[in-house]
Amino acid sequence: DQQVKQNSPSLSVQEGRISILNCDYTNSMFDYFLWYKKYPAEGPTFLISISSIKDKNEDGRFTVFLNKSAKHLSLHIVPSQPGDSAVYFCAAPLTLNFGKGTSLLVTP
Amino acid sequence: DTGVSQDPRHKITKRGQNVTFRCDPISEHNRLYWYRQTLGQGPEFLTYFQNEAQLEKSRLLSDRFSAERPKGSFSTLEIQRTEQGDSAMYLCASSTGEGDQPQHFGDGTRLSIL
Fold first, then answer.
1. Based on C-alpha coordinates, what's the Rg of chain B?
2. pLDDT tens for residues A40-79?
3. CA dihedral over B50, B51, B54, B59, signed as positive or negative
4. How far apart are the first and last CA of chain A?
5. What are the C-alpha distances in Å from A39 to residues A44, A105, B81?
6. B42, A89: Cβ pair inside 8 Å?
7. In this complex, do A98 and B93 lie within 8 Å of one another by their Cβ atoms?
8. Is the pLDDT of residue B86 over 70?
9. Is the Cβ–Cβ distance between A7 and A99 less than 8 Å?
């Protein structure tokens, strides 16, 4: 059973625009969430996290929003850059239940 | 910070052979995790260690899979009697285990079963 779900397998965005990647979860006991970014032939790299006591966390161009009532989180990238093209995974803690990932393509 | 190191990067073997992968975590990290990733999927958790203690192994895929971390530093993941379905990327990660500190991943070992 997948406790973290990313329902959009891919997303294409123009450079300079906003990228919004979505994630839903089922377990209300999760107390923080993480986003990872993965380039081909590399391991996932930690990007940003959010605690369940917050509804927003921002780090430069990356902002994660958490809606606990909807059990939904989203990652916003503004402005998007071609180097952001990668697969993005959301994950819940400890044993890191990963979503299937969303492949982001940022076109010039 | 030398990062998490995995060896080998690629392994090709015949069905039925045994394979062993090694992971060297970040030196000050107490926790070490193994994941498997197949095409189009996110990493799938297999097992993890707190120092040398294996705290969760119920999600190892079958009794052909085993992992060790004998001195609480590097770890090995062994697959016995490999099957074609074992072809995947095997990822190792480590963390301090404190609070919400993230896991840091190696670049994985890609296993191909002929």
1. 13
2. 989 999 999 999 999 999 999 999 999 999 999 999 999 9
3. positive
4. 38
5. 7, 12, 31
6. yes
7. no
8. yes
9. no
